[in-house]
Amino acid sequence: MKNALQLKNALEAKQKGVGFWLTFPSAPLVKTVLNGGGFNWVLVDAEHGQISDGDYYNLVTAIAASGASPIIRPPNAEEWMIKRALDAGAHGIMTPMCHTAADAKKIVAWNKYPPKGTRGFGPMFSSHAFGITEPEYPGAADDNLLVIVQIESRQGVENVEEIAAVDGIDVLFIGPYDLSKFMNVEFGGKEHEDAIAKVLAAAHSAGKTAAIFCSSGAQAKKRLDQGFDMVSIATDVGCIAAEFERQLADTHGVEMGKGRKVY
Question: Taking every annotated instance into account, which residue ranges of this chain make up the domain HpcH/HpaI aldolase/citrate lyase (predicted)?
Answer without folding.
Answer: 27-239
